[in-house]
Amino acid sequence: MYQRILVPLDGSQNAQSALKTAIQIARYFGSTLILMSVADQGSMSIASGSLPLDLSQELGKRAQQILNEGQSTAETAGVAMESFVTEGIPKNEIVSAAEDEEADLIVIGKSGADALNRLLIGSTTAYVVRRAPVQVLVVNAEEN
Q: Which helix (H) or strand (E) holds 143?
C-alpha cells in the first residue's frame, strides 16, 4: 500500500515522533523511508531580506545534522531508507519532494521547531495537508 514514505525532519520532538511512526508503517508494509531536511531559507530571508553566505552554510550544516540523526534512527530500526537535504521554504519543499520522490504517504509532525515561522506565514503542516498530492499522516509528539 505505502511503498515510499516521505518524512520531513526539522529537529523537533514532533518530527522525531513522526519518524518513529513512519518506521512502524515501513516495517508493516516493507516501505522505503525518504528522509528529508530543509535548510530553511524562508524565515531568515523575511527577517533580513537576504541571507549572508555564512548563515546559509550554517543552515545547511544544521539541516545535515538533523538528517544524520534521522538516518541513524532509521538504520538502527533496520528499514530501507533514502535521504536528502534541500534549501528553501520547508512547506514548499515538502510538497515538491512528495511529487519528485514519488511518495505514497507523508508522515509529518504536528508542528515543527520554528514557532516564529508559524506566526509569520502559517503552519508548514497545515500547508502540506492542504497541498500535498498524497495522503498525509500528522503525528503529535509523544507524551512523557
A: none
Of the candidates 110, 99, 91, 100, the one whose C-alpha atom is nearest the C-alpha of residue 134 is 99
Q: Are 36 and 83 in contact (CB under 8 A)?
A: yes
Can you tell me which residue has the cell 530543509? 38
Query: pTM for this structure?
Result: 0.87
Interval 73-111: pLDDT, tens: 999 999 999 999 999 999 999 999 999 999 999 999 987
Dist CA 36 CA 84 (whole Å): 5
CB 80 within 8 A of CB 26: yes
For residue 91, give the C-alpha cell: 512547506
